[in-house]
Amino acid sequence: MSHRPTLYGSRHAVSAGHYLATAAGFSILESGGNAIDAGCAAGIALAILHPDEVNVAGVAPIMIRTGQGKVVTIAGLGHWPRRFPADLFMREHGGKMPLGILRTVVPAAPDAWITALRDWGTMSFGDVASAAIRYAREGFAVFEYMATMIKQYEDGYRSWPSNAAIFLPGGQVPKVGDRFLQTDLANTLQYIVDQERAASKHGRLAGLAAARAAFYCGDIAETIVRYHESHGGYLARDDLADFHSRYEEPVKVRWRDFDVYTCGPWCQGPMLAQALRMIEAAGGLKGLKHNSADYVHLITEILKAACADREYRYGDPLFVDVGMEELLSDAHVKARVAAIDMQRAMPDMPPPVGRYPANASSPSKLRSDAVVEPDTSYCCAVDRWGNAMSATPSDGSWRSPVIPGLGIVPSGRGTQSRPDPNHPSGVAPGKRPRLTPNPAIAVRDDGSVMPFGAPGGDVQVQAMLQVFLNTFHFGMDIQEAIEQPRFATFSFPNSFAPYTHLPGRLNIEDRLPAATIEELRRRGHDVEMWPALTRRACSVEAILLDSPTGFLRAGADWRQPAYAMVS
User: Fold this and answer.
1) 157-195 as b/e, with b when 16 or more CB fall inside 10 Å?
2) Contact between residue 311 and residue 470 where contact means Cβ atoms under 8 Å apart
3) Under 8 Å CB-to-CB from 148, ≥6 apart: which residues?
4) Quick check: 168 and 111 in contact, CB under 8 A?
5) Could you tell me if 147 and 173 are in contact, meaning their C-beta atoms sit under 8 angstroms apart?
6) Which of 238, 278, 376, 503 has its CA 20 to 30 A from that of 212?
7) Residues 170-216: pLDDT tens digits?
């Protein structure tokens, strides 16, 4: 039983991590735009409405499936500045990555949204950014999770006056219901729109090119670079001017009567594909009851194995020979599953299987808490023509300084690279960090399509997998599948600096029977209870275009103010 209903419609749908972002995308669909236009509108709005975990100048990985069946991914992920010394953190910072400007990689989100609009949308940047500009200029009501995260990272926000001025107005942590204003950010977005409008007499594409140039070559870029030059940063004019979000081949895996698409190993997306393959190799969950001890144990051990491969192998495929085909091969999947003991939890991340880098991580317990940083939101849209968009915009605002006068934090996503350049996801000039945000789309043989995704760092794939299985193995409707209690392993190095490693840790929302928890502990899991309902277990949003019925079925996670709208 769910606390909200699954929403049914016949024309179009949007689901996003904040209800006002959903409204922004829905208004685009109602005015004749397609799913890509709507997804961009919702995604840009999330950078205003979730400013603690999404940034206009952050990252925005995007997946699109057209009504004709073509699936593409736009990485929306920037690289380290070309002149960044690969050994800087090892040489000058003791192998650690300090907070601040040194974490900056090239901002990718503006180019990613514009690329999606240019190649797959129908509207202008001004059209899709209008709601975001309004929310920034007129303000919106602070919600509980946002207030909690700003309080938790208050010291980070106080590190720079430009951050404190926005996130600690009057020197105080904003309260729930306060009006949150971002005037500089509204002006920055308006400048981009004005530049687009001036060039649009030559057509929509010329206008979009001018919008991109306004950020990457014009006054905005100049302001960013001057700040970096005067504060010891490495981001340069050519890093910005030459940047273009890459189209990357999706990873596709067959699961029963589905093709499931994830982004490539420049992010953690392929973990979902690996987990689905391992589930089938382990017997396809036959006879396992939902959220029983056997089910939780098996999924946890499978996720540990996928996380191990992520740690040993994943990285920017332009720099790292990841070997994705090998990781999805029958031999590798069988080897991983064969190591699982259904009566005893593996005490840590499993060891490597097959080839792996020489610097494989060794366990070290750095903290007593499974921290999920405030980072990322999610949105998806499906239109009447069968187009679907899935996007996971991200980047927190407490790790690095806001550029004064612009209201943006150029992407601090370097936090997801390792300081050691020899690691698969290690720092290197021109290399991209290994991203956690990972939108996905599932396509059924009957023509049904489901874009889905979530925020939540290392828990994203874990939550997405559980919702997917709730829906398509256990037969729940979308909203019910989303609202079920979740669990997450942290038995691996965290993707964010300082890379916390908690061997054996299993966190569970406190809604499972005590006997189940006790049995998991008996099997060796280091169980720590989350509250019964927590955003730390992610916020999954999804839309299912159910081809046999012709209905769209949309759901949104009640763990944050996420909502869906359908027509």
Assistant:
1) bebbebbbbbbbeeeebbeeebebbbebbbebbbbbbeb
2) no
3) none
4) no
5) yes
6) 376
7) 999 999 999 999 999 999 999 999 999 999 999 999 999 999 999 99
Taking the C-alpha atoms of residue 549 and residue 551, their distance in angstroms, rounded to an integer, is: 5
End-to-end CA distance of the chain: 24
Residue 313 in tokens? 């192998």
Amino acid at 121: G
User: Given the structure tokens 């509204």, which residue do they identify?
Assistant: 186
Q: Which residues contact 75 (CB under 8 A, 6 or more apart)?
A: 61, 108, 112, 245, 246, 247, 248, 263, 266, 432
Phi/psi of residue 65, nearest 5 degrees? -120, 125
Contacts of 32 (CB under 8 A, 6+ apart): 122
| Spatial distance between the Cα atoms of 372 and 456, rounded to a whole number of angstroms | 6
Q: What does DSSP assign to residue 365?
A: B
Residues 419, 84: contact at Cβ < 8 Å? no
Strand order in the sheet with 541-546: 7-9, 551-555, 541-546, 449-453, 440-444, 258-262, 251-255
Contacts of 202 (CB under 8 A, 6+ apart): none
Contact 195, 436 (CB under 8 A): no
Which of 169, 160, 165 minimizes the C-alpha distance to 142?
169
Q: Which residue in this structure is represented by tokens 């808490």?
A: 369
State pTM to two decimals: 0.97
Beta bridge partners of 449: 443, 545
In this structure, what DSSP letter does residue 269 have?
T
CA distance 160 to 404: 10
Report which of 510, 507, 513, 511 is spatially closest to residue 527, judged by C-alpha positions. 507
Instruction: Measure the CA–CA gap between 207 and 390, rounded to whole angstroms.
Output: 24
Tokens of 166: 């926005």
The CATH number assigned to the domain with range 251-372+438-566 reads 3.60.20.40
| Location of structure tokens 């929509």 | 204
Give me the amino acid identity at 39: G
Closest CA to 476 of 428, 419, 540, 415: 540
For tokens 């239109």, the residue is 383
**DSSP-assigned states of every residue in 298-362:** HHHHHHHHHHHHHHHH-S-TTT----HHHHTSHHHHHHHHHT-BTTB--SSSPPP-SS--TT---
pLDDT at 480 over 80: yes
pLDDT digits (tens, 9 = 90+) for 47-99: 999 999 999 999 999 999 999 999 999 999 999 999 999 999 999 999 999 99
CA 80/CA 243 separation, integer angstroms: 11
